[in-house]
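MODEL INPUT / OUTPUT PAIR
PAIR INDEX: 1
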Amino acid sequence: MKTLRMAALASLTLVGAVALAGCGSDDNRVSTGRQGAAPAGSGAAIDCPPDMSLTAQGSSAQKNAIQEAIASYQDTCAGAKIDYNGNGSGAGIKALIADQADFAGSDSTLKIESEDGKTEVDDAAKACGSPALHLPMVTGPIAVAYNVQGVDGLILDPDVTAKIFLRTIVTWNDPAIAALNPGVTLPATPIKPFFRSDESGTTENFTEYLAAAAPTTWTAQPDKAWTGKGEGKPKSDGVAQAVKGSAGGITYAEWSYAKDNQLGIARIDNGAGAVELTPESVGKAVTAAKADGAGNDLRLKLDYSTKEVGAYPILLVTYEIVCSQNKDATRGAQIKSFLKHFASRDVQAGLEEVGYAPLPDALRAKVDSAINALQ
């Protein structure tokens, strides 16, 4: 699994992860539709449907996590083919609506607001032939990641963070940053903010945070398209690598990308003290989220302005958006099999190794129940 993990993280899509998993498995094994023994880390037996083949698109934020899940799934269900293209949440939703994907990964929920007389919720239901459900599967902390030589444990608050990304604070030794970091020697290096140039659920969640926690400074409406300042780079890989190669660089990116690129990660002070990004601090924030859907539609409403002690406030939840009743029963069984594995306790726990926080047990139980109800 360690070999699979490192190979998967280097891949741009799950096509590579699938091929690597096949190379590391017993070529004589076949998927027979039997109940398979669980691989290490899965936490549950897997029902391996015959001729397993799925195509999904969407969130790049969950790419490393879903690669982990597919690699472990294939340890038991040899020959299973799952192609995940991490081309962004917006693209994933469009693909689901166009019936070009079996499910979509998205860091934002389907829009209920009408645009040209249509809504994403209605369009998805029409494509599915049944209501589409949001299943929170990956908790992706958003790191404010930076590259400032000699500065470790940087502390930022919402207002200063917003001003950095609006370019009203332009050097690292600005008095507003220094006031949050007493005793730290800050260089006069220019700040170089980078943002996602593609439509991104990460951007939407990050701007949700800025709008909620620093409303007098960040006045733009949250959106998948960036409305601040800086230099755009495509995908999470793009912004993280740009910061790695730029002295004074800063960006917002999923924790896993910040870790992979060995970037500094700011501690965030929402008003109750600086909070380090850890699985525990993120889990505390997710547990405080409110349900925003009905029945098995598990939309969540995150409190980005929380002042709860020890809760890391900048995070996103990636949903797998699925049809509640698939038009193709065989395809529906395949989706159900994979998602049940993805949501299992041990697979979720294993995601910590690649920069994600596992779903809290109470939420994971609801997700498991919703998956069991899929048809």
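PAIR INDEX: 2
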Amino acid sequence: MELNIALLRGDGIGPEIVDSAAAVLEKTASEFGHRIYFTPYLIGGAAINAVGKPLPQETVDGCLASDSVLLGAVGGPEWDDLPGDRRPEKALLGIRAALGLYTNLRPAKLYPSLRSASPLRDEIVGSGFDIMIVRELTGGIYFGERGYREGRFGREAFDTEAYSVTEIERIGRIAFETAMKRGRRLCSIDKANVLETSRLWRKTMHTIAEEYPEVEYSDMFVDNAAMQLVRCPGQFDVIVTSNMFGDILSDETSQITGSIGMLASASLGEGKRGMYEPIHGSAPDIAGQDKANPIAAILSGAMMLRYSFGLSEEAERIEKAVDKVLEEGWRTADIIGNSEGAPLTCTKMTEKIIEVI
């Protein structure tokens, strides 16, 4: 199989971790007899510096012409003073919309070998947890009308949340199908006691639930969900929620696994093309120092093989290699904890994983 992948290295540690993931993908492809081609494009602050805009049309066109997209991270203090429509983060919303990516899959797994890195006590963690968050990605308050106006107390800013039945139905069905392939438990997170959008969300999800009697379905308010994730994370299998709630809760789950540097994500739409990225940011404080943890980007590459190309065996090869390297005690600085020895660099961790593959 030939795989044509667009590389969006971005800013900060983005180039380092994307190059690590690309190296792992290239090694895996060669092991299984596939040919892989990478084409780099500008995005975020790097694009602003080069062409004056965070998302050049060339990048959009290149991603649309590719089979899939691997993204690093965008943003940094260098661009913090720019207006909202010119900030690097604007490119993320733009590329998701351009590619029609309305579903974000964010797995949060506590690796047994990293159990001590979790901030949760052993009696809370128990035997571990493996959660999949299904986040709606192109609707809600992040894409609603916004601006400034004269209000009750003078000048005020506003952001509008809106969801249609169609948007809720399509993300809901993906969540139920995801649950069917896992533990057949699905919890829908909303704020239906306050928000009208959440009331529509809940009503629509209940309708879809009738189509999936095999799935144990439940609702939960977002404030309770935030509490339950640190009280008893093992109770969750699949979580489905709106754009903003998913953004917040998925970052919470990343922290209870021990490190945000371990977690991958997949952004999907109607076709097979997706965009795959670690959930962490650009970490400008360690950029260019070879200190970044490449595992989240590498696991994002594994998700790409599984979801965009249907190459489950190849994806498992990468995932098992990561497991083995961690079991052997190899660590980058963010997950070293009380482990003996010096932490591995980004380059050395990548080489260890490639050796196992």
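PAIR 2 NOTE: The first strand starts at residue 2 and ends at 10.
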